[in-house]
Design a protein that fits this description.
With 444 residues, the chain is of the alpha/beta class. It has two domains: 161 residues, Aspartate Aminotransferase, domain 1, CATH 3.90.1150.10; 257 residues, Aspartate Aminotransferase, domain 2, CATH 3.40.640.10. The protein has 14 helices and 15 strands. Helix 6 links the parallel strand 5 and strand 6. The structure holds ligand PLZ. The site of ligand PLZ has 16 residues, from helix 5.
Length: 444
């Protein structure tokens, strides 16, 4: 196990055109055998990673400001994780937890019970992907309440399976012609301060009145919400929106499910995004950052809800796989050891003011928002709030050409999101911000 030896430098370095010749060759092979239904963001093929740097097959060192969509929060190739995973692989890779159990699964559930908000008995079930976790949270809420309706929000993203497509808001590319979709899903307006100008309580009143008039409180099993929306555009609801919704849920016997798959595990400067407003969900879904790149997802909730399910009602062959749980335990202890919530706050303290400064001279930036290291800016046609997706595309392309991995998102495709590994160094962050500033300048 030579996880600590590495020849990757800590600096961004572009040594070929991007993508380079070897990447282009691999890409030609890909086109022949990989479904064109998978999008291709930045087709540079990766060989190794370390910290916030990815080394590609042509020897380019790329600065990663996306963390594989908020997954490698602890950075690439962390020795503690590599060692834990390697040891587990050498011990055993699979038994199926429902057949013969192992301690790692139990330990991850102990951590989830402790880390998620709420001072009450909690139990968890583990799965392979975020979408699977969301599906299971919905199953639990419906069974426990005996109700069917699920409330979701404009701009929401919850996955690509049949049920989670129905929960997801955006048609293209996620849903188009993939129907029919699951029934009993009701969508209400999100709090989106830049676009609706409402304060949190007013936005919550708007959503609640729609739920009461169009669905009826006693039909609602659950409200499912991303405390900060991810794919939908890093929409940070106005203060008071989440608390008002969660209070209404409590008063009406409705399960409040926080989808923390993208916002959770230190990303926003706390272990979970709901913590910023003291909101205590009944159920929390987690994935992504939880296991440092190994596929693992969790559904954690009040024991009386999670245990309402009949024995055998939850499961799956691979859910909570021993290698993935080993990775999660190493990830969580790394997050604790390095105090990554504090690191995420420090990143926000550098990046948010910088972006706000850039916005002063760049009328294409309509809004800068985020918490901790979950940060975005929304691009508009100058002087309007009309989405400017072309500008987002050109900024991402510019960054890519300079060897910086940056991601876009948003219902209108006009938001640039920054999700750096939380271990990114100050010089790396400065370097990335410099490229971003040039990209914004070039797009303006
Ligand atoms: N809930 C809040 O962000 C995954 C999707 C990438 P899976 N977001 C990245 C893509 O285009 O497929 C996500 C999320 C929130 C659920 C999910 C779904 O998680 O692990 O991708 O299934």
């Amino acid at each position: 196990m030579s996880s600590t030896t590495s020849s990757i430098g800590t600096e961004r370095k572009v040594v070929t055109e991007l993508p380079g010749p070897k990447s282009r060759e691999l890409h030609a092979r890909r086109s022949a055998v990989v479904s064109s239904g998978l999008s291709q963001g930045f087709p540079v093929y990766i060989e190794r990673g370390e910290g916030a740097i990815l080394l590609d097959v042509d020897g380019n060192q790329l600065l990663d400001l996306g963390s594989g969509i908020a997954v490698v929060s602890i950075g690439h190739n962390v020795p503690a994780l590599v060692d834990a995973v390697s040891a587990q692989v050498a011990a055993f890779t699979h038994t199926c937890f429902m057949v013969t159990p192992y301690e790692g699964y139990v330990k991850v559930c102990e951590e989830l019970a402790q880390l998620t908000p709420g001072d009450f008995a909690k139990t968890s079930a583990l799965f392979n992907s975020g979408a699977e976790a969301v599906e299971n949270a919905v199953k639990v809420a419906r069974l426990a309440t005996g109700r069917q309706a699920i409330i979701v929000f404009d701009h929401a993203y919850h996955g690509r399976t049949n049920l989670t497509m129905a929960l997801t808001s955006k048609n293209m590319p996620y849903k188009d012609h993939f129907g029919p979709f699951a029934p009993e899903i009701y969508r209400v307006p999100m709090s989106y301060p830049f676009r609706d100008g409402l304060d949190g309580p007013a936005a919550a009143a708007r959503a609640i009145s729609q739920i009461e008039s169009q669905v009826g409180a006693t039909n609602v099993a659950a409200i499912l919400i991303e405390p900060i929306q991810g794919e939908g555009g890093f929409v940070v609801p106005a203060d008071g929106f989440l608390p008002a919704l969660s209070e209404w849920a409590r008063a009406n016997g409705v399960v409040f499910i926080a989808d923390e798959i993208q916002s959770g595990f230190c990303r926003t400067g706390d272990w979970f995004a709901v913590n910023h407003e003291g909101v205590i969900p009944d159920i929390v879904t987690t994935a992504k950052g939880l296991a440092g790149g190994m596929p693992l997802a969790g559904v954690t909730g009040r024991a009386e809800l999670m245990n309402a399910v009949h024995e055998g009602g939850l499961g799956g062959t691979y859910g909570g796989n021993p290698v993935a749980t080993a990775a999660a335990l190493a990830t969580i202890s790394t997050m604790r050891d390095l105090d990554l919530p504090a690191r995420a706050r420090a990143i926000g303290d550098v990046v948010l003011p910088r972006l706000r400064g850039l916005a002063q001279d760049a009328p294409i930036i309509g809004d800068v928002r985020g918490r901790g290291a979950m940060i975005a800016f929304e691009l508009v046609k100058p002087g309007t709030t009309e989405p400017h997706a072309a500008a987002a595309k050109s900024i991402v392309n510019y960054c890519n050409q300079q060897g910086v991995i940056a991601l876009s998102c948003g219902t209108y495709g006009n938001v640039i999101r920054l999700l750096p590994p939380l271990v990114i160094t100050e010089p790396q962050l400065e370097d990335g911000l410099g490229v971003l500033a040039d990209a914004i300048h070039a797009a303006s």
